Amino acid sequence: MDMSMELSLCETPAKRHCSADRGTDSLQHLLDSHLPSQQLYNEICSLQQRLASHAQQQTTNGESHMEQVPPTSTLPAFFESALSGRTHSETLLKPEDCVQRLIDLTKEEKEHSDASSPRLLTKEQRIRLGVVKSLLKGFKERQPHKWLDVISHLTKEYFPLEVMRELHVDDILPLQSFFDSALRDRGRCSQLTEEMVGLCCSEKDVPTCHKILSAVCSHLVKTGFPEKKPEDTLLRKVCVGILDGVTRGLLDSQVSDREVLLHTDLVGVNADVSHVCFKKFCTHTISLIMSHRSNMKVSEALKRQTEWKSGKVADNLKTLYKQLLVPFESSEVVELLRRILEKQEVNWQMLLSFLATFLVCFPSAATDIQDHVTRLMTDSLENADMENTIIAFLFARQSCVEGAHVFPTYPQWFQQVFGDGSQSPAGSKKAFTFLIKFLTDLVPFEPADVLKVHILRPPFIPAKCRDLWTDYTLLAKTRLADLKVPLEETNASIYSDQGNSSAQGAPGLQDVEKAIAGFESSGKLPTNVMEASIFRKPYFVGKFLPALLQPRHLPDVADSRMKFIEALKKAGKIPSSLVTKYEEACRKETRQLLEGVFEVEEDDGVEEMMMEPLEQLQHRLKQLADAVVSASTKARVAELVSVVSEKIEGVVGTSKDGAECSERECMVDLCQPDLISSHIQVVDEVLNSVCLILHSLKDASRQSWLHQLVRMLSQHYSLLPAFLVRLVALFRNQQRTLSAHHVKGAAAFMFHLGNNSSLFPLLFIRQHRSKGKLPITLLSCFLSSLLVGTAQQMTVAHQFLAAYLKVAFLCESEKSWASEQNMILPSQLIVMFCILSWRLIPETQPSLPITSQQQLWQHLTREMHSTKYETDGRGTEDAALALYASEKFQELLKTQRPTLEDWVDFELGVVPAQDCLSPLQRHTYQFSMMSHFCSAVSSGKLDPSQCKNVNTDLHQCCSVLMKKLAMALSRFQTESGRCPGCQQTAHSDITETRVNQEAASGLLSLLAKLVQNFPSTDDGNSSGRADTLWLVQQVFSLNAPSADSPPTCLPQALLRVVLCCPAYLLFTNSMSDGGNQTLVKDTVRFMEKFLVMHASEGGVLALDVICHLLQGYVTAAEQCSERSMMKGFEDHPLIVLSTLVHLSSVRVLVPSLFVNASSWNTLPPLLDVFDRFFQEGTLSVRQTSCDSFSLAAAVLAVIKHRGLMCDTERRKDMVRQLDHSQPKVVAILCELLLVSLSDAQSCCHHSPNGVKTSQLWLSEIWRQFPHLIPCAGDGRSEFASFRHSLLPADSLPFVEVAILRCMGQLAPETIAAEKGVVEMGVCLFSRLCQRFEDTHSSQQMKDVGVLLELSRTVVSLVRLAPLSLLQCVDGDTIKQCGLEMLAVYHQRMKART
């Protein structure tokens, strides 16, 4: 060929404009050259290739002039102009030659293509095909009457699908014509089927494959599944057979390994296929798939159902299922499955995996499946239809396996269907008998968890069927024993206590890690593991070994785990068969890792293959977020939730075995949580995703996705402790870093957790275990742990509660929580939000004027309804105010309004220095709130509008406030360790409100001011009793012993509260009321029953206590009409003794006591007399008007102050003078000294110097006057009544110890001869021995050292006593005093004879 005909690639742009004309001229030159037809054809093809190459180069250089270079599609225009009037045109357009050229083209394609790859044309072949098409088009236009001959020639041959599509598109050979003639040959049908499967699986030139298959499949579907009955049924069957072959080929070609083109997708998106045709095609294809290779037994299907969840179905197969489901409604799918199961054998794997995909794709699928299963179960059990019973159970169990976010768990479903006798399909004896027969047949194939469900959640048992059920349970328990699975969960850890095991995640994982660490450090098998393999074999075999032998890629060099497994194998602790299976599973894991076999989504398979498990979870959560934000269908969201569940399982290793989570226990230690790091990572990812999704959503009412997500998380029940600990930690420790969307996300998540609480395990907080095994809800635990002491803490907590209530109100229409409102909106939440609103938003305070409050609420309520709770755009405070004013919240307040107790508890936890209120604001707020509660207390919880004209009851409010303050102060002393008696019972509990000391002090001041406003009992407006002291009554009521005995520091807290109240309340209830003898008796009772026990030392009240009493006495005495009413108080030994001991301070602190002439004025001179007596040694009290007890009390007061300043001689002289002047005073002084010593024996806070002083003076008195010793031991003596007035009841037994100890200070020979001394000593010691053996005695009475010391004193007396006095001792009493004393006594008595 002449080279001048070629187009130069170096032409200038100006010359390119005439390229088309030159192409036409070149073609005409070829036609004029009279070349043979084949050579002419080849030259034309070469010319076309050069034109195409030239155009491609121009495009590469950025100079696109495609309009000037004719592509293949424009070639007929060249022929039209070039062939007109040419003589060679007939030769070139000869149809036989064109057909032959197509055949030659096909042969070339077959030679160049791989046998396993689809038959696609090369670039050069497509140019040749374009030339042939142009020739055929030219022939059709020039000789249309001969076109049927061309079609006849074409239909005799089989061309590749790409060639057939090109001929069809250019209207040369319609596919219909080709199928009518060519597809009646079975060989061609098989060839076409194989080629279509190859195109579907091709990885090369996917767009071309898509175009080819779309055209071919659409035509096959329209022909094979016409809307009306076809005339040519044979052709229809051929088309259906080809499509069936493609479907089978895809199912058999392991298409899950890579992305493929699915013929169902190509048909579904084609507009040429009508909805009716496509629906018929999908119906037929589903039926075909369900019956494909139907050779699986039911027993195998039962075991493998967990493998066919939607999240584990191969991605391409799942896509195929979803495309086939497109034209159907949910009910139609269920009906289709029913017909399929009635007419044909099925492949259970295909059927159940299809069911799982259907379940997550249709929102109403769960309901339709449940209804179908119930109907099927009822009919099959009543008619003893085994086949339908199997189908019903397989359907139900497969649905249950999918997860609680789409279908009830198996325990819930089994109990729901068979638990209620009125609705159970097995409610009759006949049906129940068949059910038990069916379940019995399944026992050898049932998973252990299913058997446990049947046993632990038994069905309704009709009359006379109990034996059948008993036989089944025995068989099921036997099977569990064979499987070495305990009926009750055995999760007790090897290395930790059982209570914490449920918080450790997958059973055995942590034990495995610790065991490997121990083996690595010591080189020996840990003792814990060896003991568990012997004594706890169910746990070792069922939990520890599966956790240890999880398949993994084994390293080339043996690591610690491999060495540990080998050591266990050599020790005979792992069966060889189990090791073999483990090694095979590890090799399979390695092969998968090398071959890249992963189940991933279509669009990100390669990317996800390279990710770590946690990264895969992050990736899937992001997909879920995108789907939710973009308002994807519910089916897509449910599908992604299932995939997220699988990814969580991959991270934490939890096993979703269908066991009932709500029957498990979950122990959480909030103070010292021991969580697995992978659990924390998963929890953080989930919470972050929830917060981001909610932040991105414009419509806050869209909560269904979160409901599904939380229900799915119930399968991973081991994550519950991590969720709780993480949320608590965020709101306690990281409040400053929390943004608004974090708070809202946590609130929404917490709501849905509470909404689905029945799916989660029972929650126990470790500190609460000692208080009784009572479960606590997650919301209640979280609310109890919220800190609300500072302004920032209050704000964050208020935002959380407002967001929670908003979500609750938005989801109120859901059936899921309508019946459990008290759990989802507990009183604790309503109360906390209300109190926080009162503090942070003054407009909500009930003390606001009723008219203003109602007007404000009406305005906000209207605005709330208009925005449907969409208050995000407004300020946080305004949003909370609108929520508080809403009708729904006000309706809740009618039954759950905060009580005074709730309010005081909250105020006690406030930190005043960091409060949101200034001191003045807080003072005003607390007074206004107390006025509100005083008005509402008569009905407990009143609406603010109902508090008008309600009689106040200040007494009851102050009683509540006093009780709360006393308990709070006692708890504060316990937590701070200030009470030694409470140190053993003190414990840290994060869920208990901390008491702030400053807040308690502020409320004490509030109480002190409130009680001053008590009305008089005389005017009838007071609820207090006129014959009882209100303050004394409160103390006795709070300090009364109960089953839940108060801590030992409670009396001290009560005493502090009493001392903060006005002093006159210990004598009268109101300033306007005068005292009377009845009230004074109450005061004396208070002193003897409470103050003596908790505020005195050796019969002497503490200084602040006696001053408080005397101040109250002075105030009350001024109101008394007769001074004699106060006589019982004035003459009480406790008051006289305490006043004299503290007289110097009392004269300063209570000067008004000595203003008027009274008996109190005689005390200072009396004390001065004895003070001079101690200094100068001369006593002169013969003319005093004081009674003997006052004199003795004055002596004791001086002894306490100056006792150690006297030497022995001075002490002797003073005792003689005192006895000479006032004999009774000495005897009373002995009693007072004994009281001081007895109290010192029972308490630890007495000073050693004080005890020593009292012992010295008492010993000196007894040394000079030994006849007083028997009187001291006789509790019925004249002056023994003083000890009952001055000592608490539990200190009275220590009088005997004090007596014997003081007797030990004396020489035994000097007192043994005194009448009654020996007899008294033996009697007292025998009582002490009895108390020592008494289990109810105090610990001080069980001091062996003290008992031995006193024993020596009494033995000395027995040994030295005259026989005449020793005979007076009772022999039985001696026997109770020990062997040593009995031996001495017998020795002395024998010596007498």
TrEMBL record:
Highest rank taxon of the organism = Eukaryota
Q: Where is the Fanconi anaemia group A protein N-terminal domain?
A: 156-485
GO terms classed as biological process: interstrand cross-link repair
InterPro entries, per the entry: FANCA, FANCA_arcN, FANCA_helical, Fanconi_A_N
One GO term describing the cellular component:
Fanconi anaemia nuclear complex
Q: Taking every annotated instance into account, which residue ranges of this chain make up the domain Fanconi anaemia group A protein arcN subdomain?
A: 612-844
Q: Which residues form the Fanconi anaemia group A protein helical domain?
A: 509-586
Query: From the record, what ranges are coiled-coil?
Result: none
Protein's recorded name:
Fanconi anemia group A protein
Annotated source species: Littorina saxatilis
